[in-house]
Amino acid sequence: MLGSLITLAGSIFLLLGGLGVLRMPDSYNRLQAGTKASTLGTILALIGIGLFHPGWLGKLLILAFFVMLTSPISAHALARAAHAIKVPLSDKTLVDKLGERETP
Prior knowledge:
By secondary structure, the chain is mainly α.
């Protein structure tokens, strides 16, 4: 039962991440919404599956570790690359700390 609930919670986070990608106003916010929700959702789903199949738990925890390590790093690299090629911010964005740091 616990594995089912944890897997369901992971699926809900993945769904909310997808909705966040649709609803956010610019690329930077979409990256943030998708990365945070998909990282947590994937980790919860892997842990829930690991509780269904205890023999797989070690391997699934290693997968969760790599997801937790690589997903934020890749989103950061994509956001920096988008900023470097001047992908526009949303009109609702008030502060651009990276842009302020780069201007002389």
